[in-house]
Structures are given as C-alpha cells and as structure tokens.
Amino acid sequence: MGTSKTGKKAATTAARKARIQELRRAEQARDRRNRVIAITAGVAVLAGLAGFGSYVLLDASEKKDKEKAVAQAPVKGEKTWDAKKLGRNHVTKEVDYPMTPAAGGDHSQAWANCQGDVYDKPLGEENAVHSLEHGAVWITYNDKASDGDIKTLGQKVKATPYTLMSPVEEQKGALTLTAWGRQLTVDKASDPRVGQFLGKYVQGEQTPEPGAACTGGVGPA
C-alpha cells in the first residue's frame, strides 16, 4: 500500500516536470518565433527606408537634372552670337554694333548702372554693353510697346539686381531683352519667355565678368 502511494506520487511528480518542460519548450519556441518575426520586420523596415531614401535621392537628382536641362536649353526665338568672339576692349569712341540693341563687343570703360535701374532716356550703347559684360540683362523698348507693358517690365527690373531698362527707338521689335551674346524680342511683357530669359541670363554662364559691379557707373548722357 505504501509502495503504491509512493509510486503514484513519483509518477505525478514526473508528469508535472514533463508538463513544465513542455511549457518551457513551447515558450522558448514562441520567443524564437517572435525574435524571427521582429528581425524580419526590422529588416523589412530598414529595406523600406533604404529604398525610400534611394527614391528620394534619385528623385532629387532627376529633378536637378531636369532643372539644369531647362536652364541650359535655348530660349525659343532668341538670337545668339559667339560670346567669346565679341570684342571686349575699352574704347573712347562710338562703336558701330552689328545688332540693335548691341549685344556685346568693344565698349566704354564706364558701365551703365544696372542694379535694377530704369531709365526713361536713351543710354549710351557703349555703357550698356559694359553692363552686359558684368552679367546684366538690358531690357529696351520703343513706341510700339504699350504703356502697360513698359510699366510691368519696369517693375520687374526694379525688383531684379543686374538688370536695367531704357528706350531704344531704333530697335525693330516692341520689347527686347539683351544679354552678352544673347537677344530676344517679344511683343508683350506677359510673354513667358521674358521670365525664362531673365532666369537664364542674369549673371548667366554667358557672362564674361560675373559678379562685377553694377553700381558706381553712369546713367543717360
């Protein structure tokens, strides 16, 4: 009778230990499974972040390339001259320029003030050309231009460093924008090419002397 009770007790204890071991194994297996899931999820998140980062970098690079392509693209309808072949000597006499308004060439030692200066009288071309050499864009107009367009462009010039504006009655078109070796004629101030021309050529790559002064020069004679 005693032996039977002892045997039952030993069997119960063994069963309890076996059950505890089984629960521990199940818990360990669950822990391992959770760790695997966590690691897998972490890798997936990191991969996603890396992929997103790569996408952002590629997108930014592509955007920059597109902006550069737009900036380098010629403005539709613009006339061009080889900037490197235009004379850059300082002279004291009038220069017979092959285009009107002049878009580069030999010029006066004194530049026309071009820090957003708007003139209602003609400038000396030799002075304005020196301003172009410094990276300015020169906007000119004649009597074909409307008062509204002249006012609109005048306001744009006043808000834009390295620009100047003055009348040139001899030009063919109503409104002309000129940079060193570059020139565009438009009929209206609202023409989108006006902004494109200014954005590309104010202190643009065509500039022989970028950053040179646009103050301390001269105005109309």
TrEMBL record:
Keywords assigned: Membrane, Transmembrane, Transmembrane helix
Compositionally biased spans, kind Low complexity: 1-15
Keyword Chloroplast found: no
Disordered: annotated segments: 1-30
Biased composition (Basic and acidic residues): 19-30
Transmembrane segments annotated in the record for this chain: 36-58
Domain of life: Bacteria
InterPro entries: DUF3105
Name the UniProt record assigns to this protein: DUF3105 domain-containing protein
